[in-house]
Every structure is written in structure tokens, then in C-alpha cells.
């Protein structure tokens, strides 16, 4: 590269760091924005799976002690609408996540510009970015949307007692944040058209009221799958296996199988919150199972 070429391309470098990937669908522009990554003990995924799950991880160059999945928040721009799917982990979940503000800066988007926030579910890495360090909403002009069953679960005072010791902070943290926006949230059900061209699919198991969002433009579609398909290795090779990350592992496996079958059959684009390469790709059948193909 010549010096002149370096000078021209240098200002774009941060964009590659924080804006994960881009896709267009009709008039919709879709960007995935990195919120950083999670730092998890391997058991978070491996608990409940057979021992052979470690062999799959090894094939992907991953060990079993610690996993560091990326976090991809999706931004859709369509005319006057600026729609965010989940809000990232915020400032107080874990140091490696909560970087969405840096991605916004890179794209020149302000939190005040966001017109709608559509939640897939209420886990910390998807919801806790709702409030700043003073507990004020970061997206002051947005309408918030969440599945009715998901909202009911996290706002039920019994959830903190039934969710299990490992996740009590999840329950307390979700209830506190949802209380702040309770008057500004629209609750939706399976099959609802949330906004023009955006349909909700109840995809339970990872959480009780998890919603995936299907974007449509003519014959083209994109599925924003949230955590219904939670990683690019075990979830694709053995979607039937139980994952420690799912609150109802049996239901989550059934949901995953149903989604992968449809995604592969229709060759629909897929955006996964914890999938690599900015999370955008497709599911393809491979030897009786599936694999994730980045695009
Ligand atoms: Zn997640």
C-alpha cells in the first residue's frame, strides 16, 4: 500500500473494529454492532451436554475452560425508523461487554435517534444496557417492545425464588430495569406484526418468552434469532443436545431444531446475537446436521 492510500483508508479503520457486518433487505439497512464479548466458564454451555461436546469445541479451536462469545446488537434503518434489537450488556454486567456506545460513535448514530427497541429476551447481555450509571434510560425517545410471556416472567416476584441460585442476579437485574420502562413498553405475542415488515416468533426455551424477529421484503427474509441459536459450534452440529445456557433445555432444543430446519430449507439469512463475524450468515445442512456459514 502506498502512503497516499494509507492516508485515505485510515479513518475507516475503527468502523471495521466495532460495526460487525452489514446487510440490506429491500429498503432496510441492517448493521450488526459489537457490544464486545462475554467471558463465561465452559460449563455455561457444556452443562447438560454429553462429554463429546468437548470434541466439537476442539474442532472449532475452543477449549472447555472459558468461552468468549461475541455479542452482536442489530440496528435496522428503514426510512424514519431506527430500530435496535436488544441493547447490550451496559456498564455493570462484565468488563468485556457493554461496548455498544463505541459502535454508535463509529456509525455516527446517537441513542436519541433510536425510535424502537425490540427485545429478544431479558438476559443481562441483552437488556442491561437499557439504563446508564444514573439509572436513566439511554434511549429516551424509543418505544420498547418485548414478548408478553417474557415480560411477565421477569416481572413476576416469584422468579427470583424459582430461577436457581446461578441466575438470581439475572432476575433482580431484569425486574429493576423493566420497572423503569413499564409504562413505555408494548407487549407482543407470537405471530404479531410488530412494525411493518417485522414479525414476532415465540421461540421459547432459552428463556420462557424469547422472541425471534423475522424481517421481510418481498420474497427475501432475515431472521434475528437472538439466543434461540446460541453458538456456531454445538448448537449447529448437535442442536438436539441440551445446553447449560438454556433455562428450559428440552424446549430450547425443540425450538433450535425447528428454526434450523426452516432456515436451511428456505436459505433465509440469519443474525445470531452470539454468532461470529458480526453474527450474519446462513444455516446449511451438512452430513445430517447443520453448520453456520458466515456472510
Ligand atoms: Zn445472550
From TrEMBL:
Gene3D superfamilies to which the protein is assigned, alphabetical: Ribonuclease Z/Hydroxyacylglutathione hydrolase-like (3.60.15.10)
Protein name (record): MBL fold metallo-hydrolase
Molecular function GO terms recorded: hydrolase activity; metal ion binding
InterPro entries cross-referenced by the UniProt entry: MBL_superfamily_lactonases (IPR051013), Metallo-B-lactamas (IPR001279), RibonucZ/Hydroxyglut_hydro (IPR036866)
Keyword tags: Hydrolase, Metal-binding, Zinc
Highest taxon in the source lineage: Bacteria
Matches recorded under SMART domains: Lactamase_B
Family per record: Belongs to the metallo-beta-lactamase superfamily.
Chain ranges of the Metallo-beta-lactamase domain: 70-274
Pfam families in the cross-refs: Lactamase_B (PF00753)
Amino acid at each position: 500500500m502506498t502512503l497516499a492510500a494509507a492516508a485515505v483508508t485510515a479513518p475507516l479503520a475503527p468502523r471495521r473494529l466495532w460495526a460487525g457486518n452489514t446487510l440490506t433487505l429491500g429498503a432496510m439497512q441492517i448493521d450488526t454492532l459489537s457490544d464486545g464479548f462475554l467471558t463465561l466458564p465452559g460449563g455455561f454451555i457444556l452443562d447438560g451436554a454429553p462429554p463429546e461436546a468437548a470434541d466439537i469445541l476442539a474442532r472449532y479451536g475452543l477449549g472447555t475452560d472459558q468461552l468468549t462469545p461475541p455479542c452482536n446488537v442489530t440496528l435496522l434503518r428503514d426510512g424514519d425508523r431506527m430500530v435496535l434489537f436488544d441493547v447490550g450488556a451496559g456498564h455493570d454486567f462484565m468488563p468485556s461487554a457493554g461496548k455498544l456506545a463505541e459502535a454508535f460513535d463509529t456509525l455516527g448514530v446517537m441513542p436519541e435517534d433510536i425510535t424502537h427497541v425490540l427485545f429478544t429476551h431479558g438476559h443481562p447481555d441483552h437488556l442491561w444496557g437499557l439504563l446508564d450509571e444514573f439509572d436513566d434510560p439511554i434511549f429516551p425517545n424509543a418505544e420498547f417492545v418485548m414478548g408478553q410471556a417474557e415480560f411477565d416472567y421477569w416481572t413476576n416476584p416469584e422468579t427470583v425464588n424459582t430461577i436457581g441460585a446461578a441466575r438470581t442476579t439475572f432476575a433482580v437485574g431484569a425486574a429493576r430495569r423493566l420497572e423503569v420502562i413499564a409504562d413505555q413498553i408494548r407487549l407482543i405475542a407470537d405471530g404479531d406484526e410488530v412494525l411493518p415488515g417485522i414479525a414476532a416468533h415465540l421461540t421459547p426455551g432459552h428463556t420462557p418468552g424469547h422472541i425471534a424477529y423475522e424481517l421481510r421484503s418481498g420474497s427475501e427474509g432475515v431472521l434475528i434469532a437472538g439466543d434461540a441459536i446460541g453458538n456456531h459450534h454445538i448448537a449447529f452440529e448437535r442442536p438436539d443436545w441440551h445446553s447449560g445456557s438454556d433455562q428450559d433445555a428440552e424446549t430450547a432444543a425443540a425450538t433450535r431444531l425447528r428454526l434450523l430446519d426452516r432456515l436451511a430449507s428456505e436459505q433465509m439469512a440469519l443474525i445470531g446475537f452470539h454468532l461470529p463475524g458480526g453474527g450474519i450468515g446462513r444455516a446449511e445442512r451438512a452430513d445430517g446436521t447443520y453448520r453456520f456459514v458466515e456472510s
